[in-house]
Specification:
Number of domains: 3
CATH superfamily of the largest domain: Ribonuclease Inhibitor
Structural class: mainly beta
Strand content: 25-35%
Radius of gyration: 28 Å
CATH architecture of the largest domain: Alpha-Beta Horseshoe
Order of helices and strands: EEEEEEEEEEEEEEEEEEEEEEEEHHE
Helix content: under 10%
Shape: elongated
Number of strands: 25
């Protein structure tokens, strides 16, 4: 018999059968058959393609076992990534999953969606911790969610990391060291709800970073160089908690819109020096004159301040 040349979306060919429903005699693809005196028909047999999603502890130990997803997924079906179920590693914390054991694949956090188009294994990612301080990351990791219990990050834990794209810190981390994320050029998203203090240059040269209202919502000072040369930032909302801005946005040349919520302007020193002359600064109408009076402190022209 000729080899099967038919295809069926979402199904794999399993052979031939003399009955359409598969209850007759079965023949493998390319098998031989001796013709009798009468015509006969062979019916292609199809089985749905299904894939699995598995989890690996990736060298850790603990109990209970790694998450088990017993669902049979059709091609293109979406799965919801499960959380770590209790595994732990010595002097390390679980910071998410990755499609590669070494961390060079696609990173996922618990509750993320993942599209299944093959049998897939997610590997636990472990960051090194010493006395509550996160000191280093898995090589090549792209996305991490640091768990509660970590209280600080070391100054060198993220510096010059060229692969990390997303970082979420717990509320237990309240300060970011100077130059902590220096030149993390792939970093796009940060969520740091507990951070009150930012060190100078902490996000300098993070050229892909696009901060949101959730990035540093409780920061009290935006210090020198904290968003320096971050050329992907086009808009920024100054946290209501912020009382001082010092050269924070130097050379953020694509910054075109800044919003202040405070009716009392934060103190400033060259806050927007070397930013675009097209920058528009939105302030409460009741405080417009107060902000305009501080134009030189912010290194902008008074006309750049607008109110609703």
């Amino acid at each position: 018999m000729s080899a099967n040349a038919f295809t069926r979306a979402g199904y794999s060919f399993t052979g031939w059968n003399t009955a359409a429903g598969g209850s007759g005699s079965s023949y493998a693809n390319g098998a031989s058959y001796t013709m009798g005196a009468a015509d006969f028909t062979l019916y292609a047999q199809w089985a749905p393609i299904v894939y699995t999603l598995s989890y690996s502890e990736n060298g850790a130990a603990g109990a209970p076992a790694v998450p088990v997803d017993g669902t049979a997924y059709s091609p293109g079906q979406t799965a919801v990534v499960m959380d770590n179920t209790g595994y732990s590693a010595t002097n390390a914390v679980f910071v998410g999953w990755n499609t590669q054991a070494g961390g060079s694949g696609t990173g996922y956090s618990a509750a993320d969606n993942i599209t299944i188009n093959a049998n897939t294994t997610l590997y636990a990612m472990w960051a090194t911790v010493s006395d509550g301080t996160l000191t280093s990351l898995p090589a090549g990791v792209t996305k991490i969610t640091v768990p509660a219990g970590v209280t600080a990050i070391a100054a060198t834990a993220f510096q010059y990391n060229a692969t990390i794209t997303s970082v979420t810190l717990p509320s237990s981390v309240t300060s970011i060291p100077a130059d902590a994320f220096l030149s993390c050029t792939a970093l796009q998203s940060v969520v740091m709800p507990g951070v009150l203090t930012l060190g100078y240059g902490c996000f300098e040269n993070c050229t892909s970073l696009v901060p949101t209202a959730d990035s540093v919502p409780n920061a009290t000072i935006l210090p020198s160089g904290c968003f320096e040369s971050d050329t992907s930032i086009t808009s920024f909302t100054i946290p209501a908690s912020c009382a001082e801005i010092v050269q924070a946005f130097m050379y953020a040349t694509n910054l075109l819109s800044v919003t202040f919520m405070q009716t009392t302007p934060p103190s400033g020193y060259q806050a927007f020096i070397h930013c675009s002359a097209s920058l528009v600064i939105h302030v409460p109408s009741s405080a417009l004159a107060d902000y305009q009076a501080m134009a030189s402190d912010y290194s902008v022209d008074a006309s750049q301040f607008v109110s609703p």
